[in-house]
Design brief:
Number of helices: 4
Number of domains: 1
Distance between the termini: 24 Å
Oligomer: single chain
Strand content: under 5%
Largest sheet: none
Helix content: 55-70%
């Protein structure tokens, strides 16, 4: 899910209007699986959400909350660069 949402954000970055229904569907799925995400998926998903927000594409606040909650759980799993 994180990769798909990231791809949608990249399309928006390239001025390709993302389909609102597609963003909603992918976002909802991300919300459902947020509790299973690892650190990289959490990072990619939050990055994608931020990219979409920069382009004026709204992502449901429940998705952001769910992924942020998982970020708190996996924060200790991140390996330093």
């Amino acid at each position: 899910m994180s990769t798909t949402l990231y791809a949608v954000a990249k399309l928006a970055e390239e001025r390709v209007d993302p389909d609102a229904a597609a963003v909603e569907t992918v976002s909802e799925q991300a919300r459902r699986v947020a509790g299973e995400m690892g650190p990289e998926e959490v990072s990619n998903t939050l990055y994608a959400i931020a990219g979409l927000a920069e382009k004026g594409v709204e992502v449901d606040a429940a998705v952001v909350r769910a992924v942020n909650e998982q970020a708190r759980h996996v924060a200790g799993e991140v390996e330093p660069a």
